[in-house]
Amino acid sequence: MTTQELSAATSSTSSTRKTPGSTTVSGGVSGAAEPASSRGKTSIADVVVVKIAGMAAREIPGVYDMGGGLSRTIGAVRDRVPGGRPNVGRGVKVEVGERQTAIDLDLVVEYGVAITDVARDVRENVIAAVERITGLEVVEVNIAVNDVHLLEDDETDTGMDTRVA
After folding, report:
1. ∠ at Cα 54 (50, 60), nearest 5°?
2. If pLDDT is split at 50, 70 and 90, which confidence band does 151 have?
3. What's the half-sphere exposure (Cβ side, CA atoms, 13 Å) at 117?
4. What is the CB-side half-sphere exposure of residue 103 using CA atoms within 13 A?
5. Residue 156's Cα: distance from chain center in Å?
């Protein structure tokens, strides 16, 4: 193949990759004539997006915990086991495509905070973090508030630990 033929093949391949509205990503091409950024494919596992979204959601004031009742109970047991690590992905579900992702979050908020404000702040922080770190476009962040944490809940838990038999 001559240099002109190689150049023509490369330009036709590039034009098919850059179709407006296309969401498919090229598997990458090889060759010294190609820029380094197109010489391979990058894939991002679901667990990566789960961890980033979980950490970003927990950064927002007013978020007490994440996950449904059963997952929080299991998480509390897991956190007390020596050597156990907290699950930052608890309460996070994602769907990851080649260029886009959708995220579902289950939150427990502190009593007294404006839920709409917390949800907005969580949504903004999660979108910014996931898009900045992964380069994926976040198409939606759905938030379900499953519970409200009351101060009395903490006092009840500590009272049970100090019971004398």
Report:
1. 155
2. confident
3. 6
4. 35
5. 33
Q: What are the tokens at 127?
A: 């979108």
Backbone dihedral region for residue 67 (phi beyond 0: left; psi -120 to 50: alpha; all else: beta): left
Give tens-digit pLDDT for 77-94: 556 667 666 678 889 999
Q: Beta-strand (E) ranges in the chain? A: 63-66, 92-96, 100-110, 137-149
Cα–Cα distance measured from residue 143 to residue 92, given in angstroms and rounded to the nearest whole number = 10
What is the average pLDDT value for the chain, to the nearest integer? 78
Q: How far apart are CA 118 and CA 135, in angstroms?
A: 24
Phi/psi at 126 (5° precision): -65, -45
* Model pLDDT for residues 24-37, shown as the tens digit of each residue: 444 566 677 888 87
